[in-house]
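help with these tokens:
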Amino acid sequence: MVDDRLEETGPPNLKQLRKRGLEWFAEGENHDYFAPEMLYLEDRELSAYSQAAGDLYDRLLLAAKKVGEPELFKAAGIPQNAVEAVAHSLRREWGNHLVGRFDFAGGLDEVPLKMLEFNADTLSLMPETLSVQSLQFEQLPRSERKGTRQWNKLLPALTKGWQKLLNRYTGRPATLLLIGLGHEEDWLNLDVIEMAAQKAGFEEVHRAPLEEVIFSEEEGVFLEIAPDEYLRYDFVFKMAPWDFIAYEEPELMGLLTQIIKRDLCVVLNPAYSMLLQSKGLLPLLKELKIDHPAILRASTSAADFPDNRYVEKPIYGRTGDNIRLFDGQPAAAAENPGDYGGLPKIYQELALFNIDSDGDRYQPSVFVAGGEACALCFRRQDSLIVDDDAEFVGHYLGG
């Protein structure tokens, strides 16, 4: 039970959230998104999270490289129309991955730490992690805050990652376009990307929804800034996932493939992120001789779990959509609807979660940016599947 780790802070101050442009996270349907407590960790527990995330990141990169060698793209869940872009990206864009987030189970009170998945392409929780849990930390009772701190190096790590990219592509103008799908949450996460890019030295940073962006396989990526006046960008960070583009926008997939092959624009996260994002990579880890104590057993067949204790996941599902959880019985103990039901599935061993006396599950998330583990947050939920209804829980470390 984690109850004795929880310290009451109250929800984050709404005035301070508005000052930072983050009120969307705490108003309307989101009014109860932020937990009114913070979670206490010991340094050794943080070290375990950080070390695991760093080690697993290296192993997943190695797995992605190995998939590229024997051309196991289909087995890893890469759609046929994305293979050319992913293969090119593995060869020519290696090291361009900017930011991702591991979702774990366990890690506290002797509950084994296990990796649930890696959000390698587009990801959320950046503004909450960077700014909101810092606000709540200031709301800890003064006696409790003395000698304590947070592990929250997301912004400097992202800045370091952007600086690496600028140093790699020294001949390119430092012009960056941030692309969203129109969701408010996209823009708030892109705010963090923009802050880091500006700190790293980008001269121009603009943003636009996907439908306003012009993609040319001959010339690159543009915005029309005035009638018949166009601005070209040498760097793009998109919140449109590669799998969404491959499945839903095949014409755009073809254009982006040519754009990156002709080196007309640096597109981030790079196309090989699709391999890291795909849960289809998880069943291949054993075959590729990739091992780590935090890796859960995974398969492409439910028959490999005769005890009926597993989670069924679509290879590119997000926010808990289309997940079914089996806990020893033929019928699912929990399941969520969603938009990913038509995708191939993988089956993953059940993991233990830390829980409190109310039965809420705690899911730790560790960010990796600029090649290093750099920040931590938690979510909690009163159901077997952690999804979009989860609360955000900040953390603090003992002195």
Remarks:
- The mean pLDDT is 95.
- The chain has two domains: 3-279+354-397, 297-349.
- Residues 3-279+354-397 form a domain with the Rossmann fold fold (CATH 3.40.50.1760).
